[in-house]
Design brief:
This protein has about 190 residues and is of the alpha+beta class. The chain has a single domain, classed as Bira Bifunctional Protein, Domain 2 (BirA Bifunctional Protein, domain 2), CATH 3.30.930. A seven-stranded mixed sheet has the order 1-2-3-7-6-5-4, with helices on both faces. Helix 4 packs across helix 6. It is globular. The two termini are about 25 Å apart.
Amino acid sequence: MSSQSWNALTKETPLIKVFRYVETASTNDRARDHLRRRRTPLSGPILFAADRQTAGRGRGGHSWWSPDGGLFLSYAARRSDFGLAAGESVELSVAAATAVAQTLRRRGQKRKPFSVRVKHPNDVMLNGRKVCGILIESPTAETVIVGIGINLNQPSIPVPEELRNRYISVEAALGAPLNPLSFVTELTERLFS
C-alpha cells in the first residue's frame, strides 16, 4: 500500500501527520523519539504505523511478536485529544481495546461470524485467542502514546511454539484479508470521536 494513500488519513481523520514504515524496531519507540525531538507542542494526534516490528513490546516488558502482515500502530497525542485528564490511562487502554473490537466486528462480521471480546484492560480476543494488544505509555504529563498491535493479515504463518495456543490472526479467522488502510481509518475515527 502506498504511503500516499496513508497520508490521506490526515484529510479523513483527526490525524495531523502519518509516518509509515515497512519495518521498525517499535512504533512506540518511534513515537517517543518524535515527541522528544519536537520543538513545538503537539497540535493533534500523529500516527506511526509499521508492517512489521523487530522489537515490539507489550505490558510488563513482554515482547510482542510482530511478523509481516500485522498492523502495528502507535498514536502520539495530547491527553485532551482522547478527552483524558492527567493520570488517566487505564481508561484509555480499555477505550482503545474497545475501539479495536468494534472495528473488527464491523469490518469482519459481514464475512464470517466470529466472537470478539475485550479482555480487561488491554487485550482483544478473537474466538478465544489473542488478536490484539494495547500498550499505553506517557512520555510527558501532557502526551500519551497508544500502541496497538493487531494480528491482521497473516493467514498461515509459522507461529512460535509458546504462542500456538493463544495466537490468532483476523485473516485466519475470516478466511480473507482485511484492507489495513480502511481498518485504520475506521479505528482512528473511533479513537478520536
